[in-house]
Specification:
The chain has 274 residues and is α/β, with parallel strands linked by helices. The chain has ten helices and nine strands. The protein has two domains: 168 residues, 3-Layer(aba) Sandwich (Rossmann fold); 87 residues, Pantoate--beta-alanine Ligase, Chain: A,domain 2, CATH 3.30.1300.
Length: 274
């Protein structure tokens, strides 16, 4: 596996590589990331992973400085998974001057996670477009755990007519149902035991809708109440249409239930399609 930090060095290494698939990450890799790498291998001849903790998508009070950075272990996992090239730029490599040109997503950036993390999706869209321009992949793989992020990137790619296929990777879970996440490492042993409750609440909503329940607000509030009773502080539990993440209209049955809730000092997000 080749490792490059500079844009020029990566572009030189990619010269002649025709079918490129990109898997962007922020490092601290787990089995969920590796599943994305495995999907990438199916869709192209050259798999490029990136590791970059993107300051633009963190608010000043968030965990940019403390976000876990495990570069040596990450490299070993990526090489074992068959990655051909790793792009691991510094901030100076990716942002050699202040990033004054940014991508401004539409109203979708202000709902759900965007309501609680203002500017987050602007930072995500900006760095992803920059990575796309550097790597020029034919396809890119993103996990469905970050469901709203995946939709923002898909819409951006379509509306800007980028010649890139966006592939959504299914969420990988621990045996008890907890979605794998780099931030799970923040959980104490007691919190880790409690953490699967979030996915159980989402599954209960899915089961209720499958059984014919149509009052989604009642289901959302019941889940928020149950989480609060167990010590969680919930930002949202929301049943939405998969097509645009707007509330259900009664006719569209392709739904997704999404949630963000804080357990102790750790903010967990999850979702399940209905």
């Amino acid at each position: 596996m080749q490792i490059h930090a500079s844009v020029d060095a990566l572009r030189a290494a990619l010269s002649g590589c025709r079918h490129r698939v990109l898997v962007p990450t922020m490092g601290n890799l787990h089995a969920g990331h590796i599943s994305l790498i495995e999907q990438a291998r199916v869709h192209g001849d050259t798999v490029i992973a990136s590791i970059f903790v993107n300051r633009l998508q963190f608010a000043p009070h968030e965990d940019f400085d403390s976000y876990p950075r495990t570069f040596a272990a990450d490299c070993a996992k990526l090489e074992a998974a068959g990655v051909d090239l790793l792009f691991a730029p510094t901030e100076a490599d990716l942002y050699p001057e202040p990033q004054e040109y940014t991508v401004e997503p539409p109203a979708i950036q202000n709902i759900l996670d965007g309501e609680f993390r203002p500017g987050h999706f602007r930072g995500v869209a900006t760095v992803v477009l920059k990575l796309f321009n550097i790597v020029q992949p034919q396809a890119a793989v993103f996990g469905k755990k970050d469901y709203q992020q995946l939709m923002v990137i898909r819409n951006m790619t379509r509306q800007l007519a980028l010649p890139i296929t966006i592939i959504g990777g299914e969420t990988v879970r621990a045996d008890d149902g907890l979605a794998l996440s780099s931030r799970n490492g923040y959980l104490s042993p007691e919190e880790r035991t409690e953490a699967p409750r979030l996915y159980r609440e989402l599954n209960q909503i899915r089961a209720a809708i499958h059984a014919g329940e149509s009052d989604t607000l009642k289901l959302e509030n019941a889940a928020i109440f149950a989480l609060a009773a167990a010590g969680w502080k919930t930002d949202y539990v929301a049943v939405r249409q998969r097509s645009d993440l707007t509330p259900p209209n009664g006719s569209d049955r392709a739904l997704v239930v999404l949630a963000a809730s804080r357990l102790g000092g750790t903010r967990l997000i999850d979702n399940c399609e209905i």
